[in-house]
Amino acid sequence: MTRSRREMPRRELLRLLAGGSGLLLVSCVPEAGADSRKGYDWSRHYWGYAVDTTRCIGCGACMRACRAENSVPHGVYRTWIERYRVDARGKVAVDAARPDGPSFGVVPGEVVKAFFVPKLCNHCERSVCTQVCPVGASYATKDGVVLVDEERCIGCGYCVQACPYGSRFIHPTLHVASKCTLCYHRITPGLQPACVLACPVEARLFGDLKDPKSRLTTILRQRRYRLLRPEMGTHPKCYYIGLDAEVV
Amino acid sequence: MGFVFPNEVHVTWTVMIVLYPYITGLVAGAFIVSSLYHVFGRDDLKAVARFSLASAFVFLLFAPLPLLVHLGQAKRAFNIMITPNFSSAMAGFGYIYLAYMVVVVLEIWFVMRPQFIERARGRGAVALLCRAILLFNLHSDEQSRLADRRIVRLLAGLGIPMACLLHGYVGFLFGALKANPWWSTPLMFVIFIFSAIVSGIAVLIFHYFVVSWINGWQVDQRCVRAMGKYLWGFMIVAVALELLEVMSIAYKQTEEWEVLSDLIEHQLFVSYVVVQFLILSLVPFLLLGIAALFRLRDRLSNALTWIAATMLLGQVLLMRWNVVIGGQLVSKSMRGFTSYFPGLWEKEGLVTAAVIFTLPFGILYLFHRVVPLFPGAARTDQTRV
Questions:
Q1: pLDDT at residue A6, rounded to an integer
Q2: Most Cβ neighbours (<10 Å): which of B154, B155, B171, B379?
Q3: Do the domain assignments include residue B195?
Q4: Which helix (H) or strand (E) holds A94?
Q5: Do B331 and A166 touch (CB under 8 A)?
Q6: How far apart are CA B255 and CA B253, in angstroms?
Q7: Reported confidence tier of residue B202, pLDDT bands at 50, 70, 90
């Protein structure tokens, strides 16, 4: 029995159906990490952060705000403050603020220079953590924020080892990597990160590097700043104003 | 001691990550011994050729287990292969591991086919298992055996670079982390390969003697002497590379050396300088040197070789410890050190490690029950007669 020319062979029909359903499936899959927030276009922003070390008073309000906002467990830190004390002989002593109560204890001895340095994830442009994550759970968003997908992370700790800034940790109860998100849930609706909002002396600044009129870009144009460990080639987006050479 | 970033107070990679490169090292080393016989025709290693291949296989079976125990979300482990991030050095593990496993399993299948056929012709569950392993084809003639030997040589040859890749890759995982001055060195993967070969030969010598003593077999003297010499040569290269690495950092007197010298002189002084180098490297070097260079009585030579092999097993384990734990003791603040002491009963503790490390030996025993791994072994009393 011969088949008429118009009759589609069954194999072709199946191929067409498979191809069509594949296309349908692909079109239904959302782009990895796409932001679905209404009205927020992540391609229009590129977030950055600045720390004015000449302003920080080491009060620890930022740490407490971060803990409260992000439910950070005890013993791990999304942000912390370091205190540097230099004595007359040039010897440097460093300690970190306690998360609860008075941030720093009183230390006896002569100090000729002292300052505070808040630290957090540097949301690097060439982040090592996203490079080494074996499953792509650590990723950078289009608006320049480095995040961890808690549903995808396998908790291997490779990113914790790779981060030159000690910003990452394994969450003690979730058993996945965790870190500062720049309060992504706050910044996408137009709010400030909790630490920035809590700082009483405006030592922490957050802004859009794509916006030439933002306060952050203005300050970065006017002030001298340093990056932490630039030799790592990570291109951090956390800019330190007035940073002492002792700080790494 | 000093200032440590607050998130670095707790060491992230502990005993399991020490055990993982140790076990993969044993795989690579044992496989290379079997390949020396199958590819390079070193007949003096014939007595342990089959045993070394089986050892490589059982250690390979358990190599991922420490990693699984370590993972915070072990049930997502297969994501490494299903949704890999190819820019990650770690993402290659599943593929490299599987490819190597295929080569080892195929080689075992071809090498031990005659023994499987012999067992398959019997009765009972083991015979049925052997028939299943042989895919219910028990055919064997001179032509097929010749073809098998050719395939074995090909697989063993292919397995050498793969063994080096598997373990060199483990070294690369550490060496590629630029944030850690103790790990970040291009020599790391070479050091790992040579120390792997050392540990592989050492475990074979150790195990071969123990099994022979338990069963009252006479050890193959030619084989033991050859393995002793290989062990001596490879340990010299491995230790020299490790020392050269430290010496080059020390000579350059970079900023990193300030903190690393402190690490070596204080935090790791006992485990690294005293135990790893002065005791577990120097003593085996001397013992194996004496066994290799002087004509000693067999018993004495065997005793020296066995003691040296046992010490080198400890040396490589300690080397892994000093690399993995030592690297994490240094704070990325470059201003201080954290501390670590392993727990006994915790999830990643010493008991778990001991159980994981014992399992391959148990499987090896079962393997031996199905297919004898020392076909030419003769009882001491029989040979004396």
A1: 52
A2: B171
A3: no
A4: strand A92-96
A5: yes
A6: 7
A7: very high
A86 touches chain B (CB under 8 A): no
CB-neighbour burial class of residue A6 (10 A; exposed 0-12, middle 13-18, buried 19+): exposed
The full set of domain ranges for chain A reads: 42-127+163-241
Residue B108 pLDDT: 95
pLDDT at A15: 63
Say how far apart CA B305 and CA B292 lie, in whole Å.
9
Inside any domain, residue B98: yes
Alpha helices by DSSP H, listed for chain B, are: 15-38, 46-62, 65-70, 79-82, 93-111, 113-120, 125-133, 142-175, 188-215, 221-252, 255-262, 282-293, 298-329, 350-370, 380-384
Residues B312 and B355 in one domain: no
Judge contact between A80 and A20, C-beta under 8 A.
Answer: no
Instruction: For residues B380 and B212, give the distance between their C-alpha atoms in angstroms, rounded to a whole number.
Output: 9
Instruction: Return phi, psi of residue A116, to 5°.
Output: -115, 145
Residues of A in contact with B67 (CB under 8 A): 156
Nearest chain A residue to B73, by CA? A154
The predicted model gives B93-107 an average pLDDT of 93
Beta bridge partners of A85: A93, A114
Is residue B170 domain-shared with residue B223, that is, in the same domain? no
* Nearest CB to A133; choose among B3, B85, B177: B85
Chain centre to alpha carbon of residue B63? 10
CB-based burial, B153-178: b 16+ in 10 Å, e otherwise = bbbbebbbebbbbbbbbbbbbbbbbb
Distance, CA of B32 to CA of B225 (rounded, Å): 17
Task: For tokens 């209404």, name the residue.
Answer: A38
Counting one residue from A and one from B, how many pairs have CB atoms under 8 Å apart? 120
pLDDT value, residue A33: 46
CA distance B8 to chain A (A): 7
Question: What count of other Cβ atoms lies within 10 Å of the Cβ of residue B42?
Answer: 16
Please, are residues A154 and B80 in contact by the beta-carbon 8 Å criterion? yes
What span, in angstroms and rounded, lies between the C-alpha atoms of B12 and A209?
A: 34
Q: Could you tell me the two tokens for B68?
A: 């699984």
Instruction: Enumerate residues 6+ apart whose C-beta is below 8 A from B342.
Output: B14, B15, B349, B350
State whether B21 and B169 are in the same domain. Answer: yes
Residues B46 and B139 in one domain: yes
Specify whether B151 is located in the same domain as B268: no
Q: Is B232 found in the same domain as B108?
A: no
Range of the domain at B118: 14-176+343-375
User: B285 and B359 share a domain?
Assistant: no
* Mean per-residue pLDDT, B233-254: 95
- Provide the ipTM: 0.91
Which residues on B lie below 8 Å from A85 (Cβ)?
none
Q: How far is A111 from chain B (nearest CA, A)?
A: 18
**Is B134 within a domain?**
yes
B162 and B305 in a single domain? The answer is no
- The total number of structural domains that make up chain B: 2
B355 within a domain of the structure (yes/no):
yes
pLDDT score, position A23: 53
The model's pLDDT over A75-100, given as tens digits with 9 standing for 90+, comes to 999 999 999 999 999 999 999 998 77
Distance from C-alpha of B48 to C-alpha of A226, rounded to nearest angstrom:
61
